[in-house]
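Practice problem: predict the structure.
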Amino acid sequence: MKECKIYVFAFLMGGLYCAIGQLFLMMWVSVLGPTSPYTMAATLLSMGVVGVVMFVAGAHQKLAAKTGWGSILVFNGFACALADTYEGAAREGGAGKGVLALLDLFLWVVGTGALLAIIVAVAAFFMA
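Answer:
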């Protein structure tokens, strides 16, 4: 029964984050307009800010312990990972080292994502 409990909590937490993201999307569509190219960027930035605020307040760590992967969604979890990386490196070597560690993780993730997107695009081009 305990094994099922973590899956239910992960599902519910992931659904809650998705609902919050949908609320942000609806808010930004009403503010920026439905055809604005900045709507999705504002939504992702809002979710990132929510993730960092939750991390700094300690709420994300507590939720992650109870809900497992449900609290580590793509953008929210990435923002928390960046905050955690900065915090750990800054504790050891100051703010400069924290910023370098944060940039290293950010560029690694974004670079890997871009490389995978290129590979999929090339494969889709040749398969079409």
